[in-house]
Design brief:
Number of helices: 14
Helix content: over 70%
CATH class of the largest domain: Mainly Alpha
CATH architecture of the largest domain: Orthogonal Bundle
CATH topology of the largest domain: Tetracycline Repressor, domain 2
Strand content: under 5%
Shape: globular
Distance between the termini: 47 Å
Oligomer: single chain
Order of helices and strands: HHHHHHHHHHHHHH
Number of domains: 2
């Protein structure tokens, strides 16, 4: 096996790519792809997305560093349990990824002589979201995973913050707030369902199903989905007209997403694995709806 392959496996590049795409979609959805200067705007979003890719990758590597003992049982095929990389080199790799994640943001610095540079306020907010998200990701890996519902909420925020990050780079963070909130509630529901599925083995985690029982966890998951569905109509009530092509596309796809989200909690606390799969499918449709809103 190539000496590079274990390091790529530590990155889990698909997770990072999803974060990158979310950043780009979050930005394009609040400005529209027909706006002037879209080529430079797209480049700025790709640069910001590269930062989210690196932060996400740093979190993945940190996760492997901290969970090596558990992975010897649960994921023995990963590079650390197989002995292909050392624990210390994994820690250094994680730190390096977090540090270099700021580099793609440097071309966005205000006053630089190219079109991707941001206004000062937008650039400062971009740095705040980047730095706070990286910090919260580290906090989650060290502390949050054992906290149950607060840890679920932290993961949910970090998922939604990707869209807020893109909207901020595109110059419209307020318009990206519905994406942040929808992603927050949808992810919160999925995280609670995951805890329900893992309740039998989560001996070291104070999760909602272990603390309050399956019934309370199912109620919380349904409440979170209800919040996500209610918020899905907010763009149409504020800045996205349902009379436009983008509005029609968004409404059509988001209704499908809402329906699948409803199914993802319909049979709780039964059929947990299937409910998780439906939640993932609903999130794919939601992302497609966000893309549809950009076609204006």
């Amino acid at each position: 096996m190539s000496r590079v392959a274990p390091w790529l496996q530590l990155l889990r590049p698909l997770n990072g790519l999803i974060s990158l795409v979310g950043t780009v979609v979050g930005g394009l959805s609040v400005t529209g792809i027909s706006s002037r200067g879209i080529e430079w705007e797209f480049l700025s979003l790709v640069l910001a997305g590269s930062a989210t890719f690196l932060v996400t990758s740093g979190g993945n590597v940190l996760n492997d560093f901290l969970d090596v003992e558990g992975d010897r049982v649960n994921h023995p095929d990963r590079p650390l349990p197989r002995g292909e990389v050392s624990r210390e080199s994994t820690r250094r790799f994680s730190v390096a990824l977090f540090v270099v994640s700021v580099i793609p943001l440097l071309p966005l610095t205000p006053g630089l002589p190219w079109p991707v540079s941001l206004p000062l306020a937008g650039f400062l907010l971009t740095l705040v979201i980047w730095a706070s998200s990286a910090l919260l990701l580290v906090v989650y890996e060290y502390r949050g995973k054992a906290l149950g519902l607060p840890g679920n909420a932290l993961v949910a925020y970090l998922t939604g913050a990707v869209f807020l990050f893109g909207g901020t780079v595109a110059g419209s963070p307020i318009l990206a707030l519905p994406w942040l909130l929808m992603a927050f509630f949808a992810t919160l529901s999925r995280e609670v369902v995951k805890d329900m599925e893992d309740a039998g083995g989560d001996e070291n985690r104070d999760t909602l199903p272990r603390r309050r029982g399956m019934g309370a966890a199912a109620l919380a998951a349904r409440g979170a989905v209800a919040g996500a569905i209610a918020l899905s109509f907010l763009p149409l009530l504020t800045w996205l007209s349902w009379r436009t092509t983008a509005g029609v596309l968004y409404l059509g796809v988001v209704l499908v997403s809402d329906f699948v989200f409803g199914l993802s909690v319909a049979w709780l606390p039964e059929r947990l694995h299937r409910e998780q799969g439906l939640s993932k499918l609903a999130m794919v449709f939601a992302l497609m709806a966000f893309v549809g809103s950009a076609l204006r």
